Amino acid sequence: MKTQKILFFLSAIILFSIHMNAQVHNKSWRDITNKKEGVWFASSEAKQIAENVLLYQRKIGGWPKNVQMHQPLSESKKQKLKAIKSSTKNVTTDNGATYQEMLFLSKVYRQQPDERFKNAFLKGVNYLLEAQYENGGWPQFYPLRKGYYTHITYNDDSMVNILNLLKELKDNTNYYSITPSDDVLKKIEIAFKKGIDCILKTQYKQNGVLTSWCAQHNENTLEPAKARAYELPSLSGAESAHIVLLLMSIENPSKEIINAINSAVTWFDKVKITGLRKDRVYNSVGKTINKRMIPDETAPAIWARFMNLEDNKPFFCDRDGIKKATLAEIGEERRNGYAWYKNDPQLVLDAYPKWKKDNDSKVVKKPKNPFKIVVAKDGSGDYSSIQEAINGAKSFPYDKITIFIKNGVYYEKVKIHEWNSNISLVGESKENTIITYDDYFSKLGLGRNSTFYTYTLLVEANNVILKNLTIKNSSGEVGQAVALSIFSDEVAVVNCKLLGNQDTLYASGKGKQYYKDSYIEGTTDFIFGSATAYFENCQIHSKKDSYITAASTPKDSLFGYVFKNCKLTAEKEVSKVYLGRPWRIYAQTVFINCDLGSHILPEGWHNWKKSEAKKTTFYAEYNNKGEGFRPEERVQWSLQLNKRQAKKYTLKNILGKYKTSKKEWYEEL
């Protein structure tokens, strides 16, 4: 009797265990990752599944797709997974991979704060950041895999899943239980902005009118692209819906985002299909053996998965890649094994009225004071975008307009137009008000003059002040890449950081420019152009053995580049830097009262293999100091000014407009 009781008790435990396992093991991995947060994630079962997730993660940070992570693993399977940790084969974001695993780890970590779960999640974040293209898109597989997998992938919401994850992290919503470091959050902010920028650029124009998106876009041209044989270039109903829902979730949307949403909603309404219902025929075991479309006037609206780019007509494909007009025309395997109609756009149409009501006022929003405008990423200002603030400012104003920019990373390509004269961009702090973009010569591919289009911030207007800002070209060492480009008159850059590599600052035009108390860094020719420019109390930092300046001073100019009371520094390994070389043969560059580091070469100047430049350039110094100041070893065709000659290099002589005591433009900074 006692034995029977024990057996009954053990059987009950086993049955209970089987029942508990069945709670998750008979579900799909997608269902489990989407399971509502709660005490189950504190269970030993959840922890064991998390252990599986750790085993499946590759060292690069991502996971393979279509793996039921919750299924028990044998010891031999565990050893095999450990053996392929370094492999990058099949690591992807397709079909929810990587995103789902990170979501699951976050839910478990909130209940069971195991540092391994946190570290795996953060590795996943780094993987996503590394996988992003420079244009903001994501491929289906990373590292890149040959074929259509390199296309920017909206298919199955791959890119939208990534951007939603990054958005939750950057907005600090606590949706995820793990918070990256401040440095990583800054990268996430930029990556999200780039991703949205990519979405806006890939929205398809049909006869000049914005419509929706395609499942794939070419990673270089951004044009619609083909994937599998039956996935031809086409407009997508389902993927486009989730792109729009992402855009609608953005607080304080820009005019471009608002326009994209409005256009997509108009398109969704235009292409919806009514009076047609999906019907399935099942066999005796419940498997779908046929899908067909049945006329039904009461059926809710549906949308085709694929529509022609030119006329929005739905089409259907078999593995032969030949378009068919109806679902009935394709073979059973593809007809029954693929979702050809979707109702996801209805989610957009349902949410749109409230979104439109909430954002209509934002479209016409004007600053309270048109001469004191505030930009803030969190929506607390008049604008959330610097370019929007500039575009909304008065043209050719008589009084100074100040655009105050609150701390934040502004991933924008900013242009101060010629008509935006008398304007000041003033950051809240030099260190934390950051304007950054990442265009560079070969990325743009606009021919031999591509350099001049790579700017992060371009100033075309006169009477402009830039103050307390970091202006950065974040493309890295990839050739010519301008951070700040100025070729107008009476422009002052005060207490700013100009960051980049080759061609950081394009100080050009025939106007006069004033750089004060600023930090400028770069590798090659990182201060170049034709302007008359006065650099005072600036730090000029070389990141590589190369050239600091490449002036192209016009022949008739009285002055070119003048550096006064500046400090020239360099990275530790840098030891061979020239003060300048002539981009054009009448280059003028003078260093006065500057502290020259040991990285400055004894000869000082280079003629860029232009023999005539030895006669036409004006390269000079006066009263410099430091290990890099060796006047007796300078090239013979440069000058060491005497006291009388140096007297003319005053701020008023170089930048002034008036011979009288009338107040000069630079005195109002």
List keywords for this structure.
669 residues, alpha/beta, Glycosyltransferase, Pectate Lyase C-like, 3 domains, eleven-stranded parallel sheet, eight-stranded parallel sheet, 40 strands, 29% helix, elongated, signal, pectinesterase activity
Report what the structure shows.
The protein has 17 helices and 40 strands. It has 3 domains: about 30-170, Glycosyltransferase, CATH 1.50.10.20; about 205-365, Glycosyltransferase (Alpha/alpha barrel), CATH 1.50.10.20; about 405-669, 3 Solenoid (Pectate Lyase C-like), CATH 2.160.20.10. Residues about 5-25 have low confidence and may be disordered. It has an 11-stranded parallel beta sheet with strand order 15-16-19-22-25-28-31-34-37-39-40. With about 675 residues, the chain is an alpha/beta fold.
Structural class: alpha/beta
- Measure the end-to-end span: 98 Å
Count the beta strands. 40
* CATH superfamily membership of the largest domain: Single-stranded right-handed beta-helix, Pectin lyase-like
How many strands, which pairing sense, and closed or not: the largest β-sheet? 11 strands, parallel
GO molecular function: lyase activity; pectinesterase activity
Catalytic activity: [(1->4)-alpha-D-galacturonosyl methyl ester](n) + n H2O = [(1->4)-alpha-D-galacturonosyl](n) + n methanol + n H(+)
GO biological process, one term: cell wall modification
Active site: 525
